[in-house]
Structures are given as C-alpha cells and as structure tokens.
Amino acid sequence: xxxxxxxxxxxxxxxxxxxxxxxxxxxxxxxxxxxxxxxxxxxxxxxxxxxxxxxxxxxxxxxxxxxxxxxxxxxxxxxxxxxxxxxxxxxxxxxxxxxxxxxxxxxxxxxxxxxxxxxxxxxxxxxxxxxxxxxxxxxxxxxxxxxxxxxxxxxxxxxxxxxxxxxxxxxxxxxxxxxxxxxxxxxxxxxxxxxxxxxxxxxxxxxxxxxxxxxxxxxxxxxxxxxxxxxxxxxxxxxxxxxxxxxxxxxxxxxxxxxxxxxxxxxxxxxxxxxxxxxxxxxxxxxxxxxxxxxxxxxxxxxxxxxxxxxxxxxxxxxxxxxxxxxxxxxxxxxxxxxxxxxxxxxxxxxxxxxxxxxxxxxxxxxxxxxxxxxxxxxxxxxxxxxxxxxxxxxxxxxxxxxxxxxxxxxxxxxxxxxxxxxxxxxxxxxxxxxxxxxxxxxxxxx
Length: 447
Hints:
single chain; FAD/NAD(P)-binding domain; alpha/beta; Elongation Factor Tu (Ef-tu), domain 3
C-alpha cells in the first residue's frame, strides 16, 4: 500500500524516511515553491523558520529524554541534526542550510520516496493512508479541507521569530564568550548591560511601534514564545528574569555579573551570523533596528533577518486523534508535527517519526502499538490526545507531562534531579521494550 505524506517541513520528511525504510512506497508532497508561506524563505525540506536550536542535551532533562528515545529509534532527521550541529553550549543547535541539505540528500537517496512539488487541496479518507504534516502554515485551502473532515474550526495561535545579526558587525570589544554557569563550552556571545543601559532599552522597547494587527487577526500568542515586548509589559524586571537573565554569566573581564545580558547563539558552521536568543518580536523593522542597536556590542549591527510574527494552525487533537495519531473518524488519516498540537522542532520530528512507524505498520498489515505512556514520546502523545481542559494549547516536552513517580517514591527522594533521573531511566526502559516489538512489525525491520 502506498503512503501519502503532505508537508516538507520537519514531521513530513521524518515520516517519509521512516516509512520508506520500513518498506513503504511514499509520495511526499510539498507546496513550496509553487505556493509560498509568510514565514519560509526557501523551498528546502526542514527549513527552520524560528530558532536553530533543538533544545537541551543535558542528561536527564525532558528534551534530552525525547531525543534519547528518538536516537534509539534511529530518527533520520535527528541524525541530520547531529551531523550539522554548531557550538551551542549544552544545547543541540544546527546549521540551518546544512541541516536542510542533509535532509534533501537522505530523501533523494531513498528510492521508495517520490517528491511532488504541488499544493494538496483535497483529502479523501478512502484514498489510502495519508499523513498530514503540513505544519503551522497550512494553506487556507487545505485548512478548510481539514476543517471539513474534523467537523470543526482549527485552533490557532501566533508564533514569533527572533532576529539574526551578521557576526562581523558585532563589536567584539563590548561582548564576551560564555555559557551559563560555565556549563558546556563557551559558545554564546554575551552582551552585558548595566542598570542604566537596561532601563533605557526597556523604556524604548515598551514604547516601540508594533506592526498593526489586521482586522481579521486575533493575536493569541503561544505562552512559551511570547514577543519580547509583550513580556516586557508584564513588569520592568520581567526580562531580567527571562531571556535577559544574567545569573551564571559572570563577565570574565570584570569578575562581576551584569545587570542584564543579551545572548547570541551561532546560526551556522561558518559562524557568520548569530540569533538573538529569546528576542522574537512583533515590532516594525525600523523600530527593531533602532532599539536592538541599543544593546552593547550591537551599535552597528547588520541584520540578515528581523523578528516577525506568523500564524500557527493546529487541530483540537484530544477530540480528533487516537494514541496512534490516527483520526478517530477516519483511521486512514494520521496527523504529525505542529499541526497535531505539539510545539517545538524536536517534538515535531518526534511525532513525524511515530506517524511514520504507525502508518508503515498499518500499510504492511500489522497493528500499530502506541508508544508507552511512561516514555517521553508517550507522555507527549498522551497530552495531545487526552487533555481535558476547556482550551487545548500546544505543548513542548516538559517533566510536567511525563508520568510522575509514585507518591511514596516522591516522599522518599527529595532531590528533584534524582527524581528526574529515575523518571528518565524508567522511560528509556519502557521505550526499549516497546521498540523491540515496534521496529519489527511482521518480518521487516527499520534499517
């Protein structure tokens, strides 16, 4: 049975490569460059439009656990990320261009994948297996078709993109290299501020002119990626306890901790551009240039990209999806990526991996076995398929989602790090047991 996958971002190529390596014939559809989106700049597979980070590699953190499980399952895109990694302290960050190139190379090398550069505007539940991974910028025509099948409106929120500065325009005399608490290698450029500089920057930020909201828009931001000006309006010191927190970033030149710090993270292997970490915003470009050049070291900064806002679309997953990412009403249609209700690059790849495994298993005549709730992957899927609150919001992987320890164990072990280690150990053990069976549905195995 052929498998149709819609979307060439992160989840779609991951699902395509996984399913093809499990023996499926795959038709992969991507509408770019025939039809572009407001946020993408290329038609490349796996283009990262926001940050270039796939989050923490620190052992026994929730993002680490998710990636650990994915590596055990031979995630194709995570392998591409590892091969295109750039220095980022204790995080996994990638060279955007190289990451996309490696994904394209992997797809081209897979004889079972056929790529179609065209927009899909209609869905037929009777037309074989389909994985919808068209992402948060799903076209309006396909969005309407999904709404028709799901019997309701999409939910949506607005996501933000951080600015990127050219490295040769950074005044190196006013900045220093360091990682917080000296954890990992000193890969971040740090722009220190004293109180006077911070106050001036803050006042300029909260009074800056934003891009005008269109009549049809309702700017409902994702709490985990709020524009910096929205955060600043919550109080003068909010940024100093958030993206500009100075703790653990002592200036080696003075031996003192600054009042506030702006961190810049490397964008590519050439180190010719840096991302302003946490500085996503919805300000007019002229205002961004004026205000961001108030940051010490960025007085003459040249920006290769300014911050911006884009609309994210996702489904009401708890109402629509089963634990195997299939539609309850139409089991032949699966969802993956941010469209399914997860937030984040790693999470999108993770759901693409699972959708690819489940769809390939079904296509080969097997029964898809849900990943256990105890695992990091299972905890993420459990959230999007079992949330019971009034409003379903997308989620990143956090320890709040992972199956908690028994009350007796929690009382016995007070140290949070030790509890997290136990949870991770249990998760990996559960994952290994599931993977032993899931990787061999029938008489084939993932290579």
